[in-house]
Each structure stands twice: as structure tokens, then as C-alpha cells.
Amino acid sequence: IKSVSIFFIVVNEFCERFSYYGMRAVLVLYFRFFFRWDDDLATSIYHAFVALCYLTPILGAIVADSWLGKFKTIIYLSIVYAIGQIVMAVSAINDLTDADRDGTPDNMSVHVGLAMLGLFLIALGTGGIKPCVSAFGGDQFDDHQTRQRSTFFSVFYLCINGGSLLSTLITPILRGQECGIHTQQKCYPLAFGVPAALMVVSLIVFIAGSGMYIKAKPKGNIMMDVCNCIGFAINNRFRHRSSKYPKREHWLDWADEKYDKLLIAQIKMVCRVLFLYIPLPMFWTLFDQKGSRWTLQATTMDGTFGSLVLQPDQMQTVNPILILTLVPIMDRVVYPLIKKCGFNFTPLKRMTVGMFLAAMAFVSAALVQIQIDETLPVFPSASESQLKIVNMASGQMNITIPPQQPFALGSEQVQHILCSLMKNKPSQSFSNSFLSHCCHSSACMLELGVRIFTITNGIQSCSFSRKFGFGGAYTFLIPSTLLLTENCGNAIVEVEDIKPNTVHMALQIPQYFLITAGEVVFSVTGLEFSYSQAPSNMKAVLQAGWLFTVAVGNFIVLIVAELAKLPQQWAEYVLFASLLVAVCIIFSIMAYFYTYVDPAEIEAQFTRKDEMEPEEKEKNTIELEEKDFKQDQKEKLGKTKM
């Protein structure tokens, strides 16, 4: 029965992680291309959502441990989670407000409002159940079943990475499909709908195993005890700030009037680790941009790998693939080899190396961005406008656009010009007689590869084909003298307005390798170090602190994206890399002065003191009784002599 109940929990986690990472994989592109937000706003909202996802676990842990219990917390918040995913899928339906059926929503604020509501519910749900599911799985084992519990956690984290890997492969493919009731658009409803369905499946699977679970009752949350103790110590110290009160060895010692000395000693150990957490958010500032800035970078690159065409948001799959590869390599090969070489590669040194690797990943991203910028067209600035001049006449024309110099434009040629915007209306208008006889068709989006076009007058037709690349923009000029013969008489003139992407997505692999290697060295080691330096009953406090650093890191991205406003993207990458290198140096200095401790030994010292105290009291009482007895005997003897 126990193995079956564990099966339900593992399947639940797989479906939930598929749901979360699948939705998150396409989120920044949804902001960018459905809402038409610019890169900075799309990045800011994305990281605000991620930050909220890492703040709510603290709330979920408190609710589970102090009020509802883990089982009910998972059920209730999973319902909230599923509703949020469904609302998110509904927000992406074009036809919801497209009354004129032109393919563009008539009221974008409705879609934005639904999306923000959905993201809030998802953040509340995924964050709230994050600390509960793994702990609930651990509750299913007895204390002596350490091997089985270890196996469960291995399978559990394998499901997390498996769900992440599959979802980041599948949902971008679903997004790339075209769907719609009246007009065909990129299928964001399907890309969000499948994760929503998986979340509903996750909830159903978890409820199905209800009768088999061991459901521990809430016993109170240690984080509340820690916060209350720290609050009392600060308040008590403030009330006794006068110099007439003797100083105490540590500021937390001001809580010993109310709280147990063992609890105070445990909080001291936790505070020493939390102090080292102060520089850590900068690592997450860089790491989580692989889902925002790096995905947007991939949209300007060529994703053709032979016959395989990779979507920009699918590049994120490199991260879970490398994690599954690098974790055993580090544990079985790299770390033992370093140890054999006689180098003391302590956990804090590993974390420093991880931060440096993440900084180098952004240097690599900056170099790739410089290559991309060289291939991009020159877009008009805020004070400029772009003008396209098309000569459909049979001969050359001389064009004059004051204040620019005149230039010649041949027959069936196109010229793009950047013009400064005029504050006043021109004294005369410009027109060409042949333009009045021209018309143009609406722009359309095409899939990558060779496409065949057919032109017909209702009786005759001709066809011609062209090959299209990622990110290209083209204009086809069809002369009025067109003959509907084979290949349209080779009379169709193709104008390449924007060149297709030529920088290959494979160039992103080095930066993904560096950031993932940094994650393995930094994140895995950081959690291992934190757990080894904290008392057994304070693991939840450290987990909350660790997740809080992730949230703060995402807030930093939000602030920089909105305030820095650097004109070049590569400069922003260099800025982040420089900041992390500076933080890395500060962290290495802090790590140098850190002294490793054994929490179990410190706790044992207090336990021995507590055990000795009753014996000391009993010994002192016996000695006092003997002293009183001797005094009584002396007094009696003195009275007899008198």
C-alpha cells in the first residue's frame, strides 16, 4: 500500500512540474508577441511572476504546519493552481474579444487582466505546495526506513527534471501551431491549455491516493518560533539599551529570559548561514534570465539543425538535459579528482566557482549578442521614421526628399530611408502618379522553408516559389504587365526588407553549459552546505531563506530592466556579469572568515547540560541538608553543656 501511495505522489509531482515549466517556457514570448509588449516590459513581468512563485512557499509552509496540515494544503492550493492555469489559457484566446474577426483582439486589457489573474493564482498555488509535497512524501516512511526514503527523494527529483525537460520540449511545439475560430494565429491557448490539463490530472491523481496516505497532524511551524524569538530579542535589547545594563555576548542572548537556551543556540547557527545568503540573490538574477532575455535572444537567431527546426523557447531544454548529465559527472568524477589532487574544495569554494561560471555565461551571451547585432537591420529611433520607396515605373527615377541629397532609383527597385520627424507640416505634399494605380496586400506570417505562391485571375494562374528563413521580412512586387505563364514569367520582384537570422542558435550552447555548470556547483552545493550547518529542526527555515534569495534575484532583474534602459543588450549582459563578479569577490571574503561547525555536537552540549542540571540540583540539595543537620547538632550540643 505504501509503494502505491508513493506512486500517486510521484505522478502528481511530475504532472505539476510539467504544468509549471510548460507554461513558463512560452510565457515571455506570449508577453512579447501576443500582448505586443517590448522586451523590457515582458522581462519585468516575467521575473515579477517568478519572484512571487518563490515568495509564496513561506506562506504555504506556515499554513501547512500551523493550520491545515500538508494534505489539505496541497489539495486546496492545487485547486487554486488549476484554476489559474485555466484562466491563463482562456486569456490567450484571440476570438474572446475579436468581434470584427480581423485576428486582433479588440479589447487587449481583458486579455491582460485575465493573464495577470491567472499568473497570481498560479504563483499562489505552485509556491504554496512547493514545500509541502516533498515533505508529505517523506512523511509516508517510518524513521527506520532511511534507504526507502532516500530512494523516494531520488525518484522525486528525477520526476521534477523529467517534467521540466518534456514540457519545455512540447509546449513550444504546441505554441508554434496555428489555431483559432475565425482567424488562424499562433496557438498560445493550446500551449497553456495542455499544462492546465496536466495540473487537473495532477490534482485528480493526488486525491485518488487519499485513502492510502499517512496524514501527519500540524505540529506548529518552526519559522514562527524563530521569528518570535528574534523579535523578542530585538525588542528586549532596545528596551535595555541604556549603558547601566551589562552587555551580552550575542544580541540573541537578550531572548534568554523567555526562550530556551538550546533554541537560541540553534537560531544563532541559522543566522550565521543566513548572513552568507546576503550576496546570493545576484546569482539567481543571472540564472533565471535564461527564460526571458536568452529566449528573446534566440528569437533573433537561426534554429535550423539539419531537418530539425528548433523553436526559440525550446533552447531552454538544454538546461535540464545538462543537469541530468553534469550532476553525476561532478559527483563521481570531478570532485573526487580534485580531492585526489590534494585541493581542499570546500562547499563555499564550490559556490564561489559556481557564481564565477554564471558570470562567464553572461560574457558568452554578450559576445553572441554582438554577433547578432551586426546582422540586424537599423530600426528608427524614437525621433525617426522609416520610409520605403518603391519604383514600379519602367524607367529610372530621381528622388528628392529634403533635406537629404537626391538619389536615383532604378525600375522595380526599393530604397529604405530613415527620416527625422518634422515638428511642422511640409509646405507641399509629395506624390507620384504611378502610385495611384498600385495596391498592396496585407502582410502574412509564413513557416520556415520553401513556400509556393499561386496568382490567378479566375481563369488562368501561375505559381512561383521562394525559400524563407527565420526572422526575414519580404515584399513581392507584381507588375501590372504580369503574364500568367510558367513561374509567372520570372516577373515577380522580391525585395528583402529584413534579412533572415544568420547567427545560429547553437552559439547559445556554451552560455547554457556555463550557467548550468554554475547551477550544479552553486545550487546543489549551497543546499548541501546549508543543511550541514543548521540544526535538524531548522531545515525549513533555511529552505525558506534559500527560496527568498531566488525571489530577490528576480526582483533585481525587474529593477535593472526598468531603470537601466541600456541602449545595447550586450551592454546589459556585461553589466550583470560585472555585478556578479563583484559579488563573487565579496562572497569569497565572507567565506574565508566563516568557521564550519557541527550542529549536532553543539546541540549535544546543551542536552548534556540539561541532563546534568537535575543531578547538580539534587547534589546541592543533599549538601544543604547535611549542612543544616550538622548545624542543628552543634546547637543541641551547646545547649547540653550549658
From TrEMBL:
Keyword Membrane among record annotations: yes
Segments traversing the membrane: 18-35, 41-62, 74-93, 108-129, 150-170, 190-214, 269-287, 350-372, 541-561, 573-594
SUPFAM superfamilies: MFS general substrate transporter (SSF103473)
Location within or outside the cell: Apical cell membrane; Cell membrane; Membrane
Superkingdom of the source species: Eukaryota
GO annotations of cellular component type: apical plasma membrane
Residue span of region Disordered: 608-642
Alphabetically ordered keywords of this record: Cell membrane, Glycoprotein, Membrane, Peptide transport, Protein transport, Symport, Transmembrane, Transmembrane helix, Transport
GO molecular function: symporter activity
Record's bilayer topology term: Multi-pass membrane protein
One example of a Gene Ontology biological process annotation: oligopeptide transport
Reaction equation(s) it catalyzes: carnosine(out) + H(+)(out) = carnosine(in) + H(+)(in); glycyl-sarcosine(out) + H(+)(out) = glycyl-sarcosine(in) + H(+)(in); L-alanyl-L-prolylglycine(out) + H(+)(out) = L-alanyl-L-prolylglycine(in) + H(+)(in); L-alanyl-L-lysine(out) + H(+)(out) = L-alanyl-L-lysine(in) + H(+)(in)
Function recorded in the entry: Electrogenic proton-coupled amino-acid transporter that transports oligopeptides of 2 to 4 amino acids with a preference for dipeptides. Transports neutral and monovalently charged peptides with a proton to peptide stoichiometry of 1:1 or 2:1. Primarily responsible for the absorption of dietary di- and tripeptides from the small intestinal lumen. Mediates transepithelial transport of muramyl and N-formylated bacterial dipeptides contributing to recognition of pathogenic bacteria by the mucosal immune system.
Family designation: Belongs to the major facilitator superfamily. Proton-dependent oligopeptide transporter (POT/PTR) (TC 2.A.17) family.
Protein name: Solute carrier family 15 member 1
Organism for this UniProt entry: Astyanax mexicanus
Organism classification: Eukaryota, Metazoa, Chordata, Craniata, Vertebrata
